[in-house]
Amino acid sequence: MATSCCPEGSLPYLASDYSAKGTCVSAGAVDLYEAPVHGSPEHALILFSDIFGWNGSRLRSIADAFAMQGYLVVVPKMLTPALDGGCDGDALPAGGAFDAEWLKQFPWPVQQPKVEAALEYLKGKGAAKIGVVGFCYGGHPACWLSATHAEIVCGAVLHPSMQLEEKLFGGSTEALLKSVKCPFFLAPAGNDLPLWAESGPLGAALKASSRGDECVFTEYPEMKHGWSVRGDLADPAVARDVAAVLGEVSAFLSKHFSKM
Protein backbone atom coordinates (compact mmCIF):
# COMPACT_ATOMS: atom_id res chain seq x y z
CA MET A 1 0.00 0.00 0.00
CA ALA A 2 2.34 2.69 -1.25
CA THR A 3 0.48 5.87 -0.49
CA SER A 4 0.93 9.19 1.26
CA CYS A 5 -1.10 7.69 4.14
CA CYS A 6 0.54 4.29 4.56
CA PRO A 7 4.15 3.52 3.59
CA GLU A 8 5.23 0.78 1.22
CA GLY A 9 4.78 -2.65 2.81
CA SER A 10 1.91 -1.64 5.11
CA LEU A 11 -0.52 -4.30 6.25
CA PRO A 12 -3.85 -4.75 4.44
CA TYR A 13 -7.30 -4.99 5.98
CA LEU A 14 -7.66 -7.74 8.56
CA ALA A 15 -10.97 -9.56 8.92
CA SER A 16 -11.95 -10.02 12.56
CA ASP A 17 -14.42 -12.45 14.09
CA TYR A 18 -14.64 -10.39 17.28
CA SER A 19 -18.18 -9.73 18.46
CA ALA A 20 -18.29 -6.14 19.69
CA LYS A 21 -19.94 -5.65 23.05
CA GLY A 22 -20.93 -2.00 22.73
CA THR A 23 -23.61 -0.06 20.89
CA CYS A 24 -23.82 2.46 18.07
CA VAL A 25 -25.28 5.85 18.96
CA SER A 26 -25.78 9.22 17.31
CA ALA A 27 -24.08 12.34 18.64
CA GLY A 28 -25.72 14.60 16.10
CA ALA A 29 -22.93 15.48 13.69
CA VAL A 30 -21.35 12.04 14.00
CA ASP A 31 -22.26 8.44 14.74
CA LEU A 32 -20.27 6.70 17.47
CA TYR A 33 -19.44 3.20 18.56
CA GLU A 34 -19.66 3.34 22.35
CA ALA A 35 -17.89 0.55 24.22
CA PRO A 36 -19.67 -1.00 27.22
CA VAL A 37 -19.58 1.27 30.26
CA HIS A 38 -18.19 -0.24 33.45
CA GLY A 39 -19.08 1.64 36.61
CA SER A 40 -19.22 5.44 36.48
CA PRO A 41 -16.09 6.50 34.59
CA GLU A 42 -14.88 10.09 34.78
CA HIS A 43 -12.07 9.52 32.28
CA ALA A 44 -12.84 9.08 28.59
CA LEU A 45 -11.07 8.21 25.35
CA ILE A 46 -11.84 8.99 21.74
CA LEU A 47 -10.33 6.34 19.46
CA PHE A 48 -9.74 7.52 15.90
CA SER A 49 -9.60 4.73 13.35
CA ASP A 50 -7.21 3.91 10.57
CA ILE A 51 -8.34 4.08 6.94
CA PHE A 52 -10.62 1.05 7.39
CA GLY A 53 -12.94 2.95 9.65
CA TRP A 54 -14.89 2.63 12.85
CA ASN A 55 -15.55 -1.11 12.50
CA GLY A 56 -12.36 -2.20 10.77
CA SER A 57 -10.02 -4.99 11.87
CA ARG A 58 -9.52 -5.19 15.68
CA LEU A 59 -10.50 -1.62 16.52
CA ARG A 60 -13.69 -2.38 18.46
CA SER A 61 -11.98 -5.09 20.49
CA ILE A 62 -9.34 -2.52 21.47
CA ALA A 63 -12.08 -0.02 22.37
CA ASP A 64 -13.81 -2.62 24.52
CA ALA A 65 -10.50 -3.47 26.22
CA PHE A 66 -9.88 0.18 27.14
CA ALA A 67 -13.42 0.34 28.52
CA MET A 68 -12.60 -2.61 30.75
CA GLN A 69 -9.81 -0.46 32.21
CA GLY A 70 -12.41 2.02 33.41
CA TYR A 71 -12.59 4.49 30.54
CA LEU A 72 -15.68 5.73 28.73
CA VAL A 73 -14.70 4.96 25.13
CA VAL A 74 -16.12 6.03 21.79
CA VAL A 75 -15.03 5.49 18.19
CA PRO A 76 -16.42 8.13 15.81
CA LYS A 77 -17.48 7.32 12.25
CA MET A 78 -15.18 9.88 10.65
CA LEU A 79 -14.66 8.96 7.00
CA THR A 80 -18.08 9.33 5.44
CA PRO A 81 -19.08 9.34 2.66
CA ALA A 82 -17.22 6.06 2.52
CA LEU A 83 -15.41 4.81 -0.56
CA ASP A 84 -17.45 2.12 -2.33
CA GLY A 85 -19.52 1.50 0.80
CA GLY A 86 -16.51 1.27 3.11
CA CYS A 87 -16.42 -1.03 6.11
CA ASP A 88 -19.77 -0.81 7.85
CA GLY A 89 -20.43 2.42 5.97
CA ASP A 90 -17.14 4.12 6.89
CA ALA A 91 -13.77 4.71 5.24
CA LEU A 92 -12.30 2.17 2.78
CA PRO A 93 -13.94 -1.16 1.96
CA ALA A 94 -12.21 -4.35 3.07
CA GLY A 95 -9.45 -4.97 0.58
CA GLY A 96 -10.03 -1.58 -1.03
CA ALA A 97 -7.16 0.38 -2.55
CA PHE A 98 -6.26 3.71 -1.02
CA ASP A 99 -7.60 6.72 -2.92
CA ALA A 100 -5.91 10.03 -2.16
CA GLU A 101 -8.53 12.06 -4.01
CA TRP A 102 -11.25 10.51 -1.84
CA LEU A 103 -9.36 11.24 1.38
CA LYS A 104 -8.76 14.86 0.38
CA GLN A 105 -12.40 15.61 1.19
CA PHE A 106 -11.65 15.20 4.92
CA PRO A 107 -9.42 18.10 6.02
CA TRP A 108 -9.69 19.27 9.62
CA PRO A 109 -12.39 21.93 8.98
CA VAL A 110 -14.64 19.14 7.66
CA GLN A 111 -13.78 16.74 10.49
CA GLN A 112 -13.84 19.27 13.33
CA PRO A 113 -17.65 19.34 13.82
CA LYS A 114 -17.69 15.53 14.02
CA VAL A 115 -14.87 15.44 16.56
CA GLU A 116 -16.41 18.20 18.66
CA ALA A 117 -19.74 16.35 18.67
CA ALA A 118 -17.95 13.30 20.06
CA LEU A 119 -16.24 15.49 22.64
CA GLU A 120 -19.53 17.01 23.77
CA TYR A 121 -21.15 13.58 23.90
CA LEU A 122 -18.48 12.39 26.35
CA LYS A 123 -18.82 15.50 28.48
CA GLY A 124 -22.56 14.96 28.56
CA LYS A 125 -21.95 11.45 29.85
CA GLY A 126 -19.94 12.82 32.76
CA ALA A 127 -16.38 12.67 31.44
CA ALA A 128 -14.20 15.11 33.35
CA LYS A 129 -10.95 14.26 31.55
CA ILE A 130 -10.59 13.14 27.94
CA GLY A 131 -7.71 11.64 25.97
CA VAL A 132 -7.25 10.54 22.36
CA VAL A 133 -5.81 7.49 20.66
CA GLY A 134 -5.24 7.44 16.91
CA PHE A 135 -4.29 4.67 14.51
CA CYS A 136 -2.68 5.58 11.17
CA TYR A 137 -5.04 8.23 9.68
CA GLY A 138 -6.56 8.68 13.14
CA GLY A 139 -3.44 10.44 14.34
CA HIS A 140 -4.42 13.43 12.20
CA PRO A 141 -7.71 14.30 13.96
CA ALA A 142 -6.15 13.29 17.30
CA CYS A 143 -3.43 15.92 16.91
CA TRP A 144 -5.84 18.55 15.63
CA LEU A 145 -8.16 18.00 18.58
CA SER A 146 -5.27 18.52 21.00
CA ALA A 147 -4.14 21.59 19.08
CA THR A 148 -7.58 23.21 19.24
CA HIS A 149 -8.83 22.01 22.64
CA ALA A 150 -6.50 22.49 25.59
CA GLU A 151 -8.68 20.27 27.79
CA ILE A 152 -7.42 17.11 26.07
CA VAL A 153 -5.25 15.44 28.72
CA CYS A 154 -3.00 13.22 26.61
CA GLY A 155 -2.82 11.31 23.37
CA ALA A 156 -1.27 8.31 21.64
CA VAL A 157 -0.74 7.55 17.97
CA LEU A 158 0.20 4.13 16.67
CA HIS A 159 1.87 3.86 13.24
CA PRO A 160 1.31 7.59 12.65
CA SER A 161 0.18 9.23 9.39
CA MET A 162 -0.03 12.89 10.36
CA GLN A 163 2.00 13.68 7.23
CA LEU A 164 -1.42 13.79 5.57
CA GLU A 165 -1.65 17.38 6.79
CA GLU A 166 0.99 18.31 4.24
CA LYS A 167 0.60 15.57 1.63
CA LEU A 168 -3.15 15.92 1.11
CA PHE A 169 -4.50 18.94 2.96
CA GLY A 170 -2.02 21.66 2.05
CA GLY A 171 -0.87 22.40 5.58
CA SER A 172 2.35 21.95 7.53
CA THR A 173 2.81 18.72 9.45
CA GLU A 174 5.56 20.25 11.56
CA ALA A 175 3.34 23.20 12.46
CA LEU A 176 0.52 20.84 13.45
CA LEU A 177 2.83 18.81 15.69
CA LYS A 178 4.26 21.91 17.31
CA SER A 179 0.73 23.13 18.09
CA VAL A 180 -0.50 20.14 20.11
CA LYS A 181 -1.19 21.06 23.72
CA CYS A 182 -0.88 17.69 25.48
CA PRO A 183 1.77 14.99 25.79
CA PHE A 184 1.72 12.31 23.10
CA PHE A 185 3.02 8.76 22.89
CA LEU A 186 4.04 7.75 19.36
CA ALA A 187 4.72 4.18 18.22
CA PRO A 188 6.11 4.05 14.68
CA ALA A 189 6.58 0.73 12.91
CA GLY A 190 9.73 -0.18 11.04
CA ASN A 191 8.45 1.13 7.71
CA ASP A 192 7.28 4.38 9.36
CA LEU A 193 10.98 5.14 9.78
CA PRO A 194 12.93 7.30 9.25
CA LEU A 195 10.00 9.69 8.67
CA TRP A 196 8.65 9.20 12.20
CA ALA A 197 11.93 8.69 14.03
CA GLU A 198 12.20 10.65 17.28
CA SER A 199 15.49 12.08 15.98
CA GLY A 200 13.96 13.33 12.72
CA PRO A 201 12.29 16.66 11.81
CA LEU A 202 8.78 15.48 12.73
CA GLY A 203 9.99 14.10 16.04
CA ALA A 204 11.71 17.40 16.71
CA ALA A 205 8.52 19.27 15.87
CA LEU A 206 6.50 17.24 18.38
CA LYS A 207 9.22 17.73 20.99
CA ALA A 208 8.94 21.49 20.35
CA SER A 209 5.26 21.51 21.37
CA SER A 210 4.24 23.02 24.70
CA ARG A 211 4.39 19.62 26.47
CA GLY A 212 7.06 18.19 24.20
CA ASP A 213 9.37 17.22 27.02
CA GLU A 214 6.66 14.75 28.15
CA CYS A 215 6.22 13.14 24.73
CA VAL A 216 7.46 9.58 24.29
CA PHE A 217 8.52 7.65 21.19
CA THR A 218 8.84 3.86 21.10
CA GLU A 219 9.87 2.34 17.81
CA TYR A 220 8.71 -1.15 16.80
CA PRO A 221 11.25 -1.90 14.07
CA GLU A 222 10.12 -5.48 13.41
CA MET A 223 6.52 -4.40 12.77
CA LYS A 224 4.82 -3.10 9.64
CA HIS A 225 2.57 -0.05 9.55
CA GLY A 226 -0.89 -1.03 10.78
CA TRP A 227 0.24 -3.91 13.00
CA SER A 228 -1.58 -2.85 16.16
CA VAL A 229 -5.02 -3.26 14.56
CA ARG A 230 -4.27 -5.24 11.38
CA GLY A 231 -1.40 -7.53 12.33
CA ASP A 232 -1.98 -11.29 12.44
CA LEU A 233 -1.93 -12.35 16.09
CA ALA A 234 -1.07 -15.89 15.01
CA ASP A 235 2.42 -14.52 14.36
CA PRO A 236 4.22 -14.62 17.75
CA ALA A 237 6.21 -11.46 17.03
CA VAL A 238 3.05 -9.53 16.13
CA ALA A 239 1.20 -10.84 19.18
CA ARG A 240 4.16 -9.82 21.35
CA ASP A 241 4.33 -6.28 19.98
CA VAL A 242 0.56 -5.72 19.95
CA ALA A 243 0.49 -6.60 23.63
CA ALA A 244 3.56 -4.45 24.24
CA VAL A 245 2.29 -1.33 22.51
CA LEU A 246 -1.19 -1.49 24.02
CA GLY A 247 0.44 -1.93 27.41
CA GLU A 248 2.62 1.12 26.79
CA VAL A 249 -0.38 3.16 25.70
CA SER A 250 -2.31 2.12 28.81
CA ALA A 251 0.56 3.08 31.09
CA PHE A 252 1.06 6.43 29.34
CA LEU A 253 -2.63 7.29 29.56
CA SER A 254 -2.85 6.27 33.20
CA LYS A 255 0.19 8.35 34.09
CA HIS A 256 -1.19 11.53 32.54
CA PHE A 257 -4.80 11.10 33.62
CA SER A 258 -3.58 10.74 37.20
CA LYS A 259 -1.54 13.95 37.03
CA MET A 260 -4.39 16.35 36.52
Automatic annotation (TrEMBL):
Gene3D superfamilies linked to this entry: alpha/beta hydrolase
Coiled-coil blocks: none
GO MF term set: hydrolase activity
Top-level taxonomic group: Eukaryota
Pfam families referenced in this protein's UniProt entry, alphabetically: DLH
Dienelactone hydrolase domain mapped to chain residues: 39-239
Protein name from the UniProt record: Dienelactone hydrolase domain-containing protein
Organism whose genome encodes this protein: Prymnesium parvum
Upper lineage: Eukaryota, Haptista, Haptophyta, Prymnesiophyceae, Prymnesiales
